[in-house]
Structures
1.
Amino acid sequence: MRYIVCMKQVPETTEVDIDPETGTLLREGIPSIINPFDEYAIEEALQFREERGGEVTVLSMGPPQAEEALREAVAMGADGAILLSDPAFRGSDTLATARTLAAAVGKMGDYSVILCGKQAIDGDTAQVGPELAELLDIPHVADVREVREITEEGITVERMIEGGYEIVKAPLPALVTVLKDINEPRLANMQGIMRANQTEIPTWGIDHLGMSSSDAGLEGSATEVIDVFTPEVGGEGEMIEGEPRDQAKALAGKLRDAGVI
Amino acid sequence: MRELLIDRKKCTSCEVCLSACPFGALSLQGNGVVVGDQCNLCGACVDECPEGALVMSGERKDVDVSDWQGIWVFVEHADGEMAGVVGELLSEAKRMAQRAGYEVSAVLAGSGVGHLVDQVTARGADRVYLVDHERLAAMHEETYADLLATMVRRYRPSVFLFGATVRGRSLAPRLAARLGTGLTADCTELDMESSGRLIQTRPAFGGNIMAPIVCPNHRPQMATVRPRILRADPPDPDREAEVIDLSGEMEVAEARTVLLEAAQEEGEGVKIEDADVIVAGGRGLGSPEGFDALRDLARTLGGAVGASRPVVDSGWIPYPHQVGQTGKTVSPTVYIACGISGAVQHLAGMRSSDIIIAINRNPEAPIFKIATYGLVGDVFKIISHLKDEVEKARDGEGG
Ligand SMILES: Cc1cc2nc3c(=O)[nH]c(=O)nc-3n(C[C@H](O)[C@H](O)[C@H](O)COP(=O)(O)OP(=O)(O)OC[C@H]3O[C@@H](n4cnc5c(N)ncnc54)[C@H](O)[C@@H]3O)c2cc1C
Ligand SMILES: Nc1ncnc2c1ncn2[C@@H]1O[C@H](COP(=O)(O)O)[C@@H](O)[C@H]1O
């Protein structure tokens, strides 16, 4: 049985800096990584395979260099990888991304679980997973922090909600989006890295997916970013000085002004 | 297809566009500027080019969206109580509706939820669409998306808003995909033009940049909105609304998912998503026991306890308390960061708090850059005095 992991290559944000003059992101030379949440999705899929057999395929839509991220996933232990890359996919919003991924999943044959990260750290939308599930007409559970059981009939998961959790069972095939808490992703070993170097990663474009250009990329996107700006931060911060006791007293005064005591 | 074109005759290689590009997609090559794969076609460079050398080709024509009218707000509820964000959304919707001559409708679906009609009316709804059905008792995304899609197609709202809660962020994308429309995630600001165009502003890259987003050619314009950011007006019990009860009429599909159990996490009291005050601790606390002092202070303030990632990874406190890019996003009235350095990933989860208080013994810690009030010193000394001061202030009120 096949497990599909949707993963995205993102810039490593620890390194993202703002140009003080233009107020835009400086991205030159910033390394790309596998979206952190997606590493947990890969690890979870590998554990499914170890428990129940089957194979793990990683799937990513992105520019040609996203192949590196797919190779890293193969080095971790994924059996195969598919890159969805085409100039026609450029400028995709979550809807166009989900449509493209759905078209690819349609080409891949039978599968039992699709795993996504909770969200990608560049866009932070957390929308692609549920949108993909809807387009494939399969159930989904978002924000999964533990898989309790997976059998032929279905997958039982613990999902984190505000202040607590829910235990939800979904019949297969199903899609889950996973949180950081779910496992501890393994590191690639030497053998994996060598295998990854030898693995053929096919690239599928819009024609292979049989999509119309009006459904993909910018044309297939419903939303449009009209501007990008840097939020004003701090600046007016006030330092409260003195001995701890005086600092505490002054701070209590501020809390009272704010109406919280 | 839309495309960014560069007029070689006009390009002077001045590099203005290079720094204007938020995606780092432009670079200078032998014969001028070239566009790389990272280009998101946002057009930021087009406006900046002093020579007019950058052109966006193939702009799409606007389609007629004029028969989509009004603003809908999804009424999220749990255990018979309306989620706090609903009041915020209805208040904002009311303010925006005035500008476009729209009405505000609340969409109330669930099992045994009739008692919420008065509440959503008092909060600003002109109309309430009610669907009361036992199959809606648990909020299965599929069932709700199916029902809401039917209603949207019938009544054609121009805007449909959801809270950016766990449930809202799971349901809204499912519905948007079903309707084939756009959805903007986790907005922190909304604005409406008189034409009915909704400007949805949201943070990206962990809050390092803000992006206003529109949905020009599809309806409804959908957004999830971060709780506790928009201002909720006080309820007005004298308001009246038209109630459209669709309970008997709407077909409600059975979900494929089954809810086996729902539980509140025992322990630490207030949920951090709903807390007015969050006392958060980082590696500066030195040990798991360091959180005892924070819990004490949080209890005194009626708040919740948050944490940075390394202390969660070390097992000092469980994951539901983690704030930041790989944890939760919160926006309380007051966020007290104790022994937290203020890495961008942590800031991503708390920078929209109203008042940020930083306690750190290193005056160079980045957290001070975004702090409303900064205190340099030992966290334990300061918070133990703070707790005393708070208790004193309370007693002083005769409480
Ligand atoms: C992909 C990715 C995702 C991440 N996601 C998150 C996330 O969701 N949330 C998150 O928080 N981090 C996240 N991080 C980690 C982040 O980069 C930082 O490592 C982390 O936030 C630092 O935690 P800290 O401030 O507790 O520890 P430190 O950086 O070690 O800071 C401790 C601070 O305590 C101060 N201190 C020490 N002793 C005292 C004392 N007695 N009194 C007062 N002050 C004292 C020190 O001066 C220091 O500033 C992520 C990182 C990556 C790469
Ligand atoms: N371009 C992409 N290719 C493959 N998977 C993606 C892509 N974008 C998003 N995803 C998946 O969807 C999840 C949520 O992404 P997002 O909705 O962008 O926050 C990610 O963690 C991935 O699992």
2.
Amino acid sequence: MTSVITVPPSLDDQSFEQVVEQLAAVPADAKLLVDARHTRWASPYGLTALLTLGQTRQERPTLAVPEAEETAGYWARAGFFKHAEELFELNGSVPRARAGESSVLLEITPVVKSEDVHEVVGRIQQQAQKILTTELHYDPKATVGFAMTLSEICQNIIEHAGRGGWVGVQAYTYRKRLGKRVVVVAVCDAGRGFRQSLESAPGRVLDDRWDDGKALEDAVVRGVSRFRDPGRGQGIAGVRRFISRWDAKLSVRSGTARIALIPSWDEDVPLQENLAPFPGAQVQVTLAERVSGGPR
Amino acid sequence: MMIHIDVSSVLRQTLSCELYSNLVTRPTGAAVRTQIEALLDDERDRSLTVIDFSHVGMIDFSCADEVVAKLLLRSVAEERAVREVYFLFRGVTDDHWDSIESVLERHGLALVMETDDGCRVVGTVNDRERRAWQTVYDLGRAVPADVAPAIGTPQDDAARVLDGLHRRRLLMRLEDGYVAVGGLSDRRA
């Protein structure tokens, strides 16, 4: 018997939870159909998280691709299908990726080894500078911080996940909350996640409160690392500084919890616990259009 | 003995790729540092090495920790005290500074940075240490008696401050006094 997972019409970090909730009821070895036929829009988080879903299955799942040409065309331009065809049986009409005007700043790119991060950072810099300064009105200085942030988040996969993941960056208008242009970075993997990574630290003592939420607090807020090297944990500290300086948003989901550093323009929840379980870590950074260019 | 190391060249050799000019990822940083340390292994007794970032696009936090912090930590480590290794950082721009400053703070380190206006000491140094270093740099060569009035302390205290800066490899101790790192290179032309 095949279990059907329905992908919501609009797929982003929030609505991906609906996918995870449906998935929680399905055994890992069950045959799965991921039905995205009626999906009309997806953020980079939605697309990269969907790929990680494919990674988690023991039996190759089927993905029913969006019926809307515009949507499927965008997914192709974002580089989704070329990775999805390695993980899913694709069902439906898969368009060829065509070059042209696109809001994709960085098409979905696998992150497996250190060289991949060099590639990602090298490719994003020029594009990011153009979008951040001209469309989102950021100071040019922010571009370097943006590239550093991207680098550090991607490295999280290499250092901790134990398996490859994906990164995607897109600029779009965030109508739901802001009505402004945003740049969104998503880095998702289905590896061992923050909790398991920290548990592997030598001599780590786990208290009664230890769970995915505590692991995220330790790693994201306190910069705790599984490595004893006192220089570790600086990457995430640097990301936090960048987020704070530019009033950006960071959210990290791992296991059954999600933590968010919330900017002035958003009303998210700082820590969500007891979510449906999903392996690995899913990170999103959102930079919103600014009125003036300087840091806050 | 002065050595010049173009970090960008070391990076390209390390990655075997001409395309990348960014110092990103911890493994890359570790590889670049290892390469730099190998270049320094041939040096004896006392050496001054210019670490040149002029052609480096950006450096992330993890890489700054591996390249800058660990290089400095090893140069001041006790087991290496018999060999005096000094570093002068050149070509550091705003694009590099955030991550370098962050790792210096994290480890309580300081370094000498060469700019268009000369050299200055940056990172974790207190006001007295900064003034002492600047005095030696301005004078070219100095002893505690020269520095004491500038930092407003007795000579004994000035001697301790200078010794501390020497142990942190920010000043060189010669037979007839102290010379600031960068003080020699500044006057080489």
